[in-house]
Amino acid sequence: MAVETAPAPTAYDEWRDRRWRLTVLVFVGLWLATAVALGLTGEKRSDLNQLSASISDGSVTQVEIVSAPRDSWRGRTTVMLRWRGSWLDRFAEVQVDGRRTPGTFDGGNGIVGDPVKYLQAGAFPQELDITYVDHPSHQEWRGWRAPHWVGWLGVATWFGTVLLAGNGPEPWRATKWAWTWLTLWGGPLGCLACFLLGGPLGLGRPRDLGRRLTGGWAFLIGVVFLGGSSSGT
Predict the structure, then answer these.
(1) Can you point out the beta strands (E) in 85-203?
(2) Which UniProt keywords apply (predicted)?
């Protein structure tokens, strides 16, 4: 009687080993922790027009002016305004020109005269709470500002994922060099693609494991299409 035996596991199936499963779960947890920390402590870049609209419709009742002169507004300077949006904290860098007649706009993202009076006028007849605060120690990346520890957590997790892609088991759909370039150039999006398509999570195993994107093509894709994903503003 013939006995059927299961096919021997290949190098492409090493992601299913316990040690690699645990390693991948650690990195997934780190990415989730970074995303949660960014949402809770970070701020998304916006503009004065969005702030003015939110003040007018009453959805914003508190605004912070960061590291600005508190006695008088003279000359031309750039200040940061912070407020709470519908889901996230937001900020905008605004040019303030105290040399010109108040009541006129200075471009699309500027205030002429005292910004406190300008913002309060937009809120009338509602009350608008405006406070002065010191500049927090934040890092900025692609329109997001967050405390330094969040930035370092994200960078460490990102480069750890790059090393995992290049030094882990044989990946799916692309070679190790290809996934290294894609995770390096693609930042968080490239890392997510590697987890979902490259084999670490074991999802959607392709039938033909031999057909894979090579490192040269991945490098060109990263330079042309993903170069801006991992660069700062």
Answers:
(1) 89-97, 110-112, 129-133, 138-141, 144-147
(2) Membrane, Transmembrane, Transmembrane helix
- Per DSSP, what are the bridge partners of residue 45? 91
Backbone angles phi, psi at 96, to 5 degrees: -115, 125
Cα–Cα distance between 180 and 150 in angstroms, integer? 23
Query: What is the number of helices (H) and of strands (E) in the chain?
Result: 6, 8
Strands 76-84 and 89-97: antiparallel
How far apart, in Å, are the Cα atoms of 112 and each of 29, 98, 133, 199?
47, 6, 21, 56
Report the distance separating Cα 95 and Cα 48, nearest Å.
10
Q: Which H/E stretch holds residue 53? A: helix 48-56
Cis before residue 125, ω within 30 degrees of 0?
A: yes
Reported as half-sphere exposure (CB side, CA atoms, 13 A), residue 131 has a value of: 8
Q: Which domains does the chain have, with CATH numbers?
A: 16-39+144-225 (no CATH), 46-136 (3.30.720)
The contacts of residue 111 (CB under 8 Å, 6+ apart) are: 48, 94, 95, 96, 97, 105, 118
Q: What is the pLDDT of residues 95-104, one digit of tens each?
A: 888 766 554 5
